[in-house]
Amino acid sequence: MKLSEIKEILPTLENVEFQLENGTFVPEHFHVTEVGQVIKNFIDCGGVIRNEKTVNFQLWNADDYEHRLKPVKLLNIIKLSEEKLGIEDNEIEVEYQSETIGKYDLEFNGKTFILKSKTTACLAQDACGIPFEKQKKNLIQLSVNEGSCCTPDSGCC
User: Fold this and answer.
1) According to the model, what pLDDT value does residue 100 have?
2) What is the pLDDT of residue 99?
3) What Pfam family does this protein match (any one) (predicted)?
4) What is the pLDDT of residue 66?
5) Please, how many CA atoms are within 13 Å of residue 59, restricted to the half-sphere of its CB?
6) What is the pLDDT at residue 136?
7) What local confidence, expressed as pLDDT, does residue 155 receive?
8) Segments forming the whole domain that contains residue 25
9) Is residue 105 part of a domain?
10) Is residue 147 situated within a structural domain?
């Protein structure tokens, strides 16, 4: 989800709710402790220089059980970040603490923001020599060549 998308969604909500893919909700008394832009310059294993920009939201669970972040408050934090930091309209990455700090992509299901698990991947598979995984098919999915001379009743076997 891009920053522009969350800015369109927030005014339509009564509450801001985040949920992990496993169905667990981030407690209602969470804080958004950071909104920023992360710029990552790196070289992949194939030697290609890459640049990525993401908008970063950090969620934090405090023992402040009376706290409830309202959509207009988050929208104001985003606007302030855009004005003061020059944040661009990029994909949002959310940091949230579980056993360690996890990084998540963000989706919206019509009511709740969903923290989608991220995975690592090789960006230069052709340069690494890692073979591409062959597509697996069940034998029943393979098409039969009607012009084949060998059929169950043909006597060729």
Assistant:
1) 85
2) 78
3) DUF6428
4) 79
5) 29
6) 72
7) 64
8) 3-141
9) yes
10) no
Q: For the chain of 157 residues, list the mean pLDDT of each consecutive stretch of 10.
A: 98 96 92 95 93 96 83 96 96 91 95 94 78 68 61 65
Tokens of 39: 């710029």
- Answer whether residue 154 is part of any domain: no
Q: Which two structure tokens, joined as six digits, stand for 19?
A: 């949920």
148 inside domain: no
Beta carbons of 71 and 15 less than 8 angstroms apart: yes
Q: Quick one: CA torsion of 72, 75, 79, 85, rounded to 10 degrees? A: 130
Q: Comparing C-alpha atoms, which of 32, 42, 44 is closest to residue 6?
A: 32
Distance CA 67, CA 104 (A): 23
The structure's pTM equals 0.77
DSSP assignment string, 127-151: HHTPPPPPPP--GGGSPP-TT-S--
Say if residues 37 and 90 touch (Cβ distance below 8 Å). yes
> At CA 39, angle to CA 114 and CA 54, rounded to 5?
20
Domain count, the chain: 1
